[in-house]
Specification:
Chain lengths: ~350, ~350
């Protein structure tokens, strides 16, 4: 047998099995048209050479696809991209390819994508947040596909997860805002009905208000989708209210950057006339003027940890959920409120 | 035969074929251990029911994977994400799933990923830029996998492509800068050795300089990787030079935003002391202070067009390469240079 350099070809298989390349091809594509004896010899050569004629045959030969799926709510901005890049780099170290799909924050699309990824051979899935139907949970359990929840962590989570405590993180941000003297708070948030991280952050914010003696019912919430434009429009709506907030907390840096842009366009000085805070510490948090006070999330660490955990889950190991730290980053968009009558702090 | 609701199961197949579920399983996983007659009956039931036990068997049954691969240089920032989101949304309309891989701007990783995606059943590929080895071109040709080049367009391209003319776009930006009176130009760019879009943009810039009577050899180029930090460091290096540029053109908005941040930290007023321009018109271009003068690229349109073209290529149709328009967006970071002695414009 000649020494093989690079990937074995159809001809290599034919040579080793002592048949024509047409027969090898027939074995792979229409095995029922080949005698069992011949087929066996060809499949042995395929196995011996590690020949991968196409994905399908390889999957059947190995029983493995070496593929992991991730479904993220959006690729349209940078919220998930940095963590995902690290997730993929780490998977690559374990010889796994990543398939990414984006659900556009729509649960019914996510469900369809989960089923599709599993049917297409995903050996494990990375999913964002905990919120999904019983149907799809049952499907994953029945198919025995490990699924790791990321970008979220809850102390009582039934599923393995890696992320941060959205409740605690938003409560910490709210405490900081309240400690500066703010009493009229508003929040620009994703719709909590389709985003459980947003829901938990709202709860954290309300809990911090209550703990500080503020009435959580006074919190004004503008829900919106995830774009920069939407953040700006939400800020404009808040600014048209009779009781303008003195501090606008935002569910992401993208929304906060949009709010800042709208404030600039309206001639509203930040933080003099209103404080604005972000959440995520994306690149944009450092380039707004002033730079954003925000919650730093461990994007790359979360991606790497998620990959390591999922690799272990695929190998059949049990993993413990992991909570990662966030940290408050104080930059220029948060200050004490001025008295609107006197202009004094 | 009972009516099936939802996906057919292994039991449905067994019932229709009149065998045990163990036999169905054996047919799918070790067909050589099943008699031909039985195997035929089971495979007929599999086909009749449209049963998809796993990706591998489905691929062999249908001969299709309904999967498209895209390899982008990075997921770490927003440069490719908006167009890719549109690409995926449009593919979804045609029932195709997208597998994304990220090459970290490394040609050898891209090549590995191309081979892996093809082996894993990608029916077509979206690739960024034209630059790749003869080996991998030959591989794609041999495998008959259509590959569409995006984010780049060249009039003489041998491969189908959809994108914009990087040469013309950077030349247009340079003409605008030169028309304001700038004579000392610098460029912060990706390494042209591994990024052919960057190479073509440098050529466009030099061509515009020559056409305006400037010596292209006076162009100072700082090459760097794609991050915000790198853009800032490159600006600092430019600012340490004895002949400081009066205008710094950047290959992406991310690099330009980094340069702006460094300028702010150095106390260098933009555009008073130096003009800075971006390229791509990402979200960040609108939130810097001042907002970035940049080249608007048709991200979402490029993604949608790419999907439509690739779907046609997979169907065996010939497609014509498509050039999309860019447009210069004048915002606040470009102005006439001040005379450094007199401070006058």
């Amino acid at each position: 047998m000649r020494r093989l350099i690079g990937n074995p070809t159809l001809s290599d298989v034919a040579e080793v099995a002592g048949v024509s390349t047409a027969t090898v091809s027939r074995c792979l594509n229409a095995p029922e048209r080949v005698q069992e004896e011949t087929r066996k010899r060809v499949m042995e050569a395929v196995q011996a050479l590690g020949y991968s004629p196409n994905f399908g045959a390889r999957v059947l030969a190995e029983g493995r696809t070496h593929t992991v799926g991730a479904i993220i709510p959006t690729m349209d901005n940078a919220i998930f991209s940095r963590g995902l890049q690290a997730f993929q780099e780490e998977l690559r170290e374990s010889g796994l390819m990543l398939l990414i799909a984006s659900s556009s924050y729509r649960p019914e699309i996510e469900e369809e994508q989960i089923r599709a990824l599993v049917k297409r051979g995903a050996e494990g899935l990375l999913l964002i947040g905990f919120q999904r139907s019983d149907d799809v949970r049952a499907f994953l359990a029945a198919q025995q596909i490990p699924a790791l929840v990321a970008w979220a962590w809850q102390p009582d989570a039934a599923q393995p997860c890696v992320g941060f405590d959205n409740h605690a993180a938003m409560a910490a941000m709210a405490r900081e805002v309240i400690a500066r003297g703010h009493r009229q708070l508003a929040l620009i948030s994703a719709d909590p009905a389709v985003n459980d991280r947003a829901l938990v952050r709202i709860e954290g914010l309300r809990a911090a208000m209550a703990a500080a003696g503020l009435d959580p019912a006074t919190l004004v919430i503008e829900t919106t989708d995830a774009t920069l434009e939407s953040g700006g429009l939400a800020f404009r709506r808040l600014w048209e209210r009779p009781n303008r907030p003195t501090a606008v907390l935002c569910g992401t840096d993208v929304l906060a950057a949009g709010a800042l842009t709208a404030a600039r366009d309206l001639g509203v000085a930040v933080p003099d006339a209103v404080s604005i805070t972000g959440f995520a510490d994306l690149d944009i948090a450092r380039i707004t003027a002033p730079p954003l006070t925000t919650m730093h999330l461990p994007h790359r660490r979360m991606g790497r940890e998620a990959a390591r955990m999922l690799v272990r889950m695929i190998a059949g190991e049990r993993v413990e959920s992991r909570e990662l730290d966030c940290s408050l980053v104080l930059r220029g968009t948060l200050a004490a409120p001025r008295d609107r009558e006197t202009g004094q702090r």
